Amino acid sequence: MTTSPRSPRDFEPDAIVVGAGLAGLVATHELVLAGKKVLVLDQENRANLGGQAFWSLGGLFLVDSPEQRRMGIKDSKELALQDWWGSAQFGDSVDERGDDWGRQWARAYVDFAAGEKRDYLHELGLRSVPMVGWAERGGADPQGHGNSVPRFHLTWGTGPEVVRVFEEPVLAGEARGLVRFAFRHQVDEVIVEDGTVVGVRGSVLEPSDEVRGAASSRVVVDTFELRGPAVIVTSGGIGGNHDLVRQTWPTERMGAAPEHLISGVPAHVDGRMLAISEAAGARVVNRDRMWHYTEGIHNWDPIWPDHAIRIIPGPSSLWLDATGKRFAAPNFPGCDNLQTMREILKTGYDYSWFVTTQTVIEKEFALSGSEQNPDITEKDLRVLLRERLSKGAPTPVEKFKEHGEDFVVADTIDDLVAGMNKLSRGGAPDLDVATVEAMIVARDRELDNGFSKDAQLMLVANARRSRTDKIVRVAKPHKVLDPDHGPLIAVRLNILTRKTLGGIQTDLSSRALGADGSPVPGLYAAGEVAGFGGGGVHGHNALEGTFLGGCIFSGRAAGRAVANG
Ligand SMILES: Cc1cc2nc3c(=O)[nH]c(=O)nc-3n(C[C@H](O)[C@H](O)[C@H](O)COP(=O)(O)OP(=O)(O)OC[C@H]3O[C@@H](n4cnc5c(N)ncnc54)[C@H](O)[C@@H]3O)c2cc1C
Predict the structure, then answer these.
(1) For strand 38-42 and strand 511-513, is the pairing parallel, antiparallel, or unpaired?
(2) pLDDT tier at 353 (50, 70, 90 boundaries)?
(3) pTM of the full predicted structure?
(4) Domains of the chain, first to last
(5) 92, 275, 378, 396: most buried by Cβ count inside 10 Å?
(6) 239 lines ligand 1 (CB under 6 A)
(7) Residue 65 CB–ligand 1 contact under 6 Å
(8) What's the CA-to-centroid distance between 442 and ligand 1, angstroms?
């Protein structure tokens, strides 16, 4: 074996962290607080510190927060648990004991979100935007999927700020000699001796000066073997590895995997550490649980391969399948992600359509991603007010309208449908103008009264009773064909990969569990690779804003457990 010139071998760590994303940074932060020495390995370069969290919108699930109370929202731990259980639908696991720990993590996580979470982050300097968002509103059943109330707390500064509050103390630890980073170190094996994990082996990748998020070379220039009394795996999910996504796709529950998939995550989200950890004795459960989205658009200005951006929609756009049929309740924008994906895939095509107006996109199209929300990411209040409250859609949305390959903009319904037909794929039949027009006219007629039998219009009316929605997220109901609200806009929505809900099963100390359910000595896992705790804290469906928080909660548990021996 050879050593790299920048070898971290002269460092004797108390823990080796595999993955410098959010979960790895949080675990490292906790270890540094306890005065421990940490070696952090990552296959990417230093520019990628913080992993996916940097790209995130920084939405955080909090329960009964001061921000909610100020918006007149009455939330409680009981209501949040009811929603979590309704969404998770635990117990339907293909793995015999797949949900054993997921349930315990879910209870502990809701406790955290209703208790310590806000203070923990507040003390680190993190602040939320005062308007609490309402993600995943669910179907119709209070015991089913979805948030009964708005709980999505957007970080002031989005993902980069979530990263910053942990990165800064970790970098201070580096300056004090407690933390050593080894970038471009890709772990290929977890070393087990006499049943105990004692370190990792891997490949040193050639140096890369790629910008953050860009796919980097996998050319190996060296190998390494590094030892430490604990290994914490925080390597993220599988969303950047479409082969693995397809292999584990839940065909029985969801229908066949889409032929055309785009990536909501960078290429480093490759899922390799799952099999590597499994080879070291860890139990991987709930592999078929994933949280991919239905509202993906091709990034006109991509950073990583097949770069997808998700529209986080308000409730007003008409949602049609590839054959032009309007989805039935509760498959309206922002309600029930996986249920709608099932309906999309049932058609035999892997895309669907929003048909909407300029007025709607101005208020209701939020694009997920820190770089798509420069006003909030840069914490620039003046730009924020100008972008969000003045006429016109936010600049990033307008850019997609102008350059995005999935957008059709037209003044007449004939031109709109003709444009949609040009974008059809997979052999979908041409949409018929008269049929689409009749559907829209019928819907528009329902607006002549202040009441309606249209379930989506009822949803919109309900949404506008939430203060945030009324002020910044939901357009005043109007007729789609009213030229004052034009032009008409259609958006082809593709399925994009994002989060992995299953993973390494862990106990509440983030210790990786083996085949017999007991901890694998020396091995820990946190963040997305651990299904955000327990190998599946979300069960089948997520309530949103629960992933960054899941990294924080499980990363903190891992760091504290290792620090306490
Ligand atoms: C655009 C976008 C928007 C999002 N918005 C939100 C949001 O608003 N709210 C929310 O809760 N969540 C959101 N998420 C999800 C959330 O950001 C991620 O789930 C979370 O950041 C995952 O963190 P992690 O530390 O588990 O993994 P990652 O961030 O994926 O980090 C893992 C690291 O491990 C490294 N690694 C992997 N394998 C190896 C190996 N073999 N050897 C060495 N290194 C390795 C990788 O290079 C990477 O740096 C969003 C995600 C994206 C991409």
Answers:
(1) unpaired
(2) very high
(3) 0.97
(4) 15-236+501-563 (3.50.50.60), 294-496 (3.90.700)
(5) 396
(6) no
(7) no
(8) 44
